[in-house]
Amino acid sequence: MTERLPTTWDAAAPGVLRLPSGRLLRGRGLLDPLPPGPRPAFGVYLLGRPPEDFGWESRWVRWPDFRLPADRADAADAFIEAWERCAGERVELACAGGRGRTGTALACIAVLDGVPAAQAVAYVREHYSPHAVETPWQRKFVERRRG
User: Fold this and answer.
1) Domains, the chain, ranges and CATH?
2) Residues 6 or more apart whose Cβ sits within 8 Å of residue 48
3) The pLDDT value given to residue 3
4) pTM for this one?
5) Closest CA relative to residue 42, chosen from 82, 70, 101
6) What are the pLDDT digits (tens) for 85-130?
7) Residue 88 and residue 86: Cα distance in Å, rounded?
8) Residues 57, 45: contact at Cβ < 8 Å?
9) Which of 9, 21, 123, 125 is the most buried (most CB within 10 A)?
10) Distance in angstroms (rounded) separating the CA atoms of residues 85 and 96
C-alpha cells in the first residue's frame, strides 16, 4: 500500500495560516530555505522580477519590495485563485522576506474568506507573523479590499 500525502498543509507547520473557513495557506520568505515536508501544489510569488521555476505550478505577481502590485487586477485575480485552490491543495504565497508583500497578500485573501477588511491586517499579524504588512500603503491596500 502506498502512503498518501495530505492535499493541504499541516496546520501546525511553520508559516501556515488558517483562515476562518478552515482553509490553510503557507506564507514564506524565498530567502529562507524551503521548509521540510511536502511541497506546494501551487504558489503565488510576489516579486519585482519573474522567479525561477520551482518545480510546481506557480504564478508570478509583479510586486516590487515595499510597494504595491504593479497590476492590481492581476494581483486580485491571483488572490482569488490562491483562495479557491487552497480549499483542497497546498498553496503558498511568498516574497523575498515573507513579511510585507506576503503578509499583505494573505490579508487580502483573509478578506476573501470573510475577515472584515479593517481587521484583516490584525488577523494576519496574530495568526501568521506580527511583522506582516510592513508599510502604511500596504495596510491601506488591504483595507480597501472587498470580500
Assistant:
1) 16-32+39-143 (3.90.190.10)
2) 62, 63, 64, 65
3) 47
4) 0.94
5) 82
6) 999 999 999 999 999 999 999 999 999 999 999 999 999 999 999 9
7) 5
8) no
9) 9
10) 22
